[in-house]
Amino acid sequence: MRGMFITCEGPEGSGKSTHSRRLAEQLRACGLSVLHTREPGGTPTGEAVRLLLQHDGAGESPVATAEVLLFCASRAQLIAQVIAPALERGTWVVCDRFTDSTLAYQGYGRGFDLPTLRALNTFATGGLVPDLTLLFDVDTPLGLKRVHARTAASGAVPADRFERESLAFHEKIRNGFLDLAASEPSRFRVLDTTPAVDAVFANVWKAVQPHLPASITTGKAVDHAG
Ligand code: T5A
After folding, report:
1. pLDDT at 217 (0 to 100)
2. Is 56 inside a domain boundary?
3. Per the domain annotation, does 112 fall within a domain?
4. Phi-psi sector, 17: left (phi>0), alpha (psi -120 to 50), beta
5. Residue 23 main-chain phi, psi, to 5 deg
6. Closest residue (by CA) to atom 16 of ligand 1?
């Protein structure tokens, strides 16, 4: 049986990376074969593209059109090399960002029209659509505060190109994601990540549980203490 394809989306600092990793662990604890991956990245080509996009790895910032195409290039490689084969062999895939990020950041954020971006997404993915999309939503200043605290704590790593964008840009992204979720309620589940991580994860699990195979009734809890 084909695996389930779950994407985790949201603005900066919403906690999608934290919760997508934890979701993958919890699903594995239920006995499922699970692949956790991310965009941009997830393949050698994708990780090279990530460096170009986030840290001006070529020594210059990509122009907005090149930015769209680079995200799509990373996505095409990830689908062909990793996601499609995994789903085909029955592995569940949890992906940290996917096509909705292009609509939110390059569409609502940068101002490209959504039909063009949707066509490019379809070209890159061959039409693959997630079975379930978890939208991690947080008040914009709180999300940015979390990201800045993490950057400060890590010392060496400078804020990336997107993290340096204005508050107004990040507000557009957040509202864009909420619009996308409202337009496709059967695919999206919106999760407020203002509460502490454990409380948010309980809601993540509630959203995913109905999709578990009938043979799996309850997952062995993963101990996150320490
Ligand atoms: N992008 C991506 C596009 O523009 N177009 C596209 O098509 C795609 C695919 C990717 C960038 O590329 C852009 C969007 C992004 O700007 P990235 O490094 O992957 O860059 O950045 P993000 O995806 O934004 O990842 P972040 O790690 O910055 O944010 P997350 O995943 O939302 O946050 P996370 O889980 O790492 O948490 C951030 C901090 O908050 C804490 C965590 O411990 C961590 O320190 N935290 C919480 N603290 C308190 N309570 C909670 N509930 C918390 N949840 C997390």
Report:
1. 62
2. no
3. yes
4. alpha
5. -60, -45
6. 162
User: 97: Cβ below 6 Å to ligand 1?
Assistant: yes
Averaged in consecutive runs of 10 residues, what is the pLDDT profile of the chain (226 residues)? 97 97 98 98 97 90 97 98 98 98 98 98 98 98 94 76 92 98 98 98 98 76 52
Find the domain containing 146 and state its range: 5-39+90-211
The CATH number linked to 130 is 3.40.50.300
Ligand 1 atom index nearest CA of 75: 9
CA angle at 31 for the pair 83 and 189, rounded to the nearest 5°: 60
Pairing of strands 188-192, 132-137: parallel
Count of the separate structural domains present in the chain: 1
Interatomic CA distance for residues 144 and 20, integer angstroms:
19
In a domain, 76, yes or no: no
Global pTM value: 0.95
Residue whose C-alpha is closest to residue 126's, from 75, 66, 188? 75
Supply the pLDDT for residue 216: 83
**191 occurs within a structural domain:** yes
Ligand 1: does its nearest atom lie under 6 Å from the Cβ of 73?
no
Question: Could you tell me the distance, in angstroms and rounded to a whole number, from the CA of residue 122 to the centre of ligand 1?
Answer: 24
